[in-house]
Each structure stands twice: as structure tokens, then as C-alpha cells.
Amino acid sequence: MKILAFHGGASNVDFFGPPPHYSFTTDFSVEELERDGFCQNSEQVGDTPEETLRNLLPFDRIDAAGKKGYQEDVAWLNKILEAEGPFQAVLGFSHGACVAATLLEDNLRRSRDEGVPSMFKLGIFIGGVPPYNIADGGLFLGDVHGEIFDIPTLHIMGSSDPLVDFALALYNLCDQDKARLFDHGRGHQLIW
Asked: What DSSP string runs through 40-59?
């Protein structure tokens, strides 16, 4: 199986040192995440994951230039898919899960609307974030957009993650008969 994988925003060479990068070994505290701007509030600020995201994220700050940037990024990634594919699965951790979910949504939408063959048969999201809505800005949220992923998905999250609502909001976009949720009980990290 060929898997296209995206790392998280802090899981890069500056953070880990030179490759290969096999795992996170440090559990971040809520205070560190708040200090570094990864979350604005460690307490749930809504009755649902979607409401919490609406209350925390500045959806109104995504301007026309930002939307165009997202569209250009997805177009660039689609060129890579065409050149390097086919991939059977897409995998992402944290912000990388948002990129993976955005690319997956675009791929499935183009398959439905334009007849482009679907590249992916599986989505794997670790500490996930819902996909960007590159047409309208903001994020796809289940209470507005419903189920957008009708392929099997695996969601790995930690119930102690201050960003747990992000992962649950992504899970809520998936076909519940095909989605699997695994809670490792820890924070915003990969565990092996």
C-alpha cells in the first residue's frame, strides 16, 4: 500500500533534527501549547466539537488571498498526486491531518463532480483537524456540511489532548459505519 503522509506543523527538521523521524517522545503540557499559540483555551468552549472550533478559530479572518492560497496549495498537491501516484491512503498528524483531509475532500469531490478517478481508499488522521473548505474559507464542520468522507477512515487521538475537539470534529465528517476511533488517552502526540 502506498501512503501519502503529512507531518504536523512542529514535527519538522528544526524540531526533531535530521531525519528519519519515527515518533514524538515528548508529551507537551497544556501550558506549553497555550504559550506557543497552539490553542487559545484548554477548556471546551462549546457544547459540541464544531461549536468549540467556531468559538476558538477566526473563520472571518480568511480573506480572498488566503482562500486563493489554499486553492493553489491543493492544485500543487494534485500535481504531485498525478506525478507520484497512485496512493491508496493519505495519512496526517495534527496540521498535516488538516492538509491530508483537505486533499482527500478535494479528491473525493472531484471524483463525484468531475468523474476524476478517486486516488484514495483510506484516510488516517492522528490528532486530526477538519479540512479547509477551499471554496468558501473556514473549515468543513459536520453540523453544517454533514458527512463528506464516505471511505474508511481511522482516527487516532488522545483524550488528554487540548485539541481533542479538532479531532472529534474531523471524525464527525466521516461515514460513522466506516470510521474507526482509537483513543490512546494521552496528549497531542504520536505514540509507538
From this structure: S-SS--SSSHHHHHHHHS-G
Residue 94 falls in the annotated catalytic set? yes
Per-residue pLDDT reduced to its tens digit, 142-164: 999 999 999 999 999 988 888 89
Out of 23, 42, 94, 111, the active site residue is: 94
- With CA atoms as reference, report the closest residue to 157 among 172, 143, 138, 137: 172
**pLDDT digits 0-9 by tens, 79-123:** 988 898 889 999 998 888 999 999 999 999 999 999 988 889 999
- Continuous segment of H or E residues that includes residue 126: strand 122-126
| Dist CA 182 CA 177 (whole Å) | 15
3-state secondary structure of 183: strand
